Amino acid sequence: MLFWSDPSMAIKIIIVMLAVSVAISFGVYLKTKKKILTIFSFSLISFLSVYLNVDSRFFDIYNLKWIVKFTLYYWPIINGALLAWLIWDYYRNKK
Question: Is the pLDDT of residue 3 over 80?
């Protein structure tokens, strides 16, 4: 658990962190115009914002265990696939 245990505070922090990830991703898109890099940056930062709160009581109180399961088991695979696609795209366009 991070340094808060109040469920209402946890949801507020998650929302703020997701808004920050949208802003950062939008900035990445404006700077690079690469959609895959934008999607990857949004996915990675969003993953971190939810992952840091996985142990929060918020998910227990509101019975959102499926989000915890998705965050721990499936989201890292999606991020890995996006990273592989990004690396493949980089080397394909490097030539």
Answer: no
